[in-house]
Write a structure and sequence with these properties.
two-stranded antiparallel ribbon, 132 residues, binds guanosine-5'-triphosphate, alpha+beta, 7 helices, binds magnesium ion
Amino acid sequence: MIKPDAVKAGHIGAILNQITENGFRIKAMKLTQLTLADAKKFYEIHQERPFYGELTEFMSSGPIVAAILEKDNAVEDFRKLIGSTNPAEAEEGTIRKKFATSVGENAVHGSDSDENAKIEADFHFAGREVFG
Ligand code: GTP
Ligand code: MG
């Protein structure tokens, strides 16, 4: 996902460009907005964390771009491309270093395993919205 902060700041094009230039193929994509209930469901793994309320309110605060990306070793390579959760610790040239403003408003989300990538893809997209 491109998170609400980066959509609002006009960074959709620059972020997608960096993603595709790094060899990821877009299999599905849409501009959409999560309800608070959607965000709570999506991030339910973090429900015990102190920032869960802040995180879910932020993620439902405005439009996001949801996408399914394909590449060999996609999960690991995408997390390398986006950089550390906290942009202050993110490596130079990473998407979060360039576009994130704080640990909460950190521009992009990436799945943390192939298993979760499948669950998250199904969360956002119907079968007919996904291309080969
Ligand atoms: P995602 O790709 O969004 O899952 O980020 P991540 O895997 O790098 O981090 P993690 O899954 O641990 O946390 C999920 C999201 O919760 C982060 O991307 C942040 O937006 C948010 N988050 C993590 N730690 C904090 C925090 O200390 N404060 C706030 N406000 N948000 C946090
Ligand atoms: Mg995560």
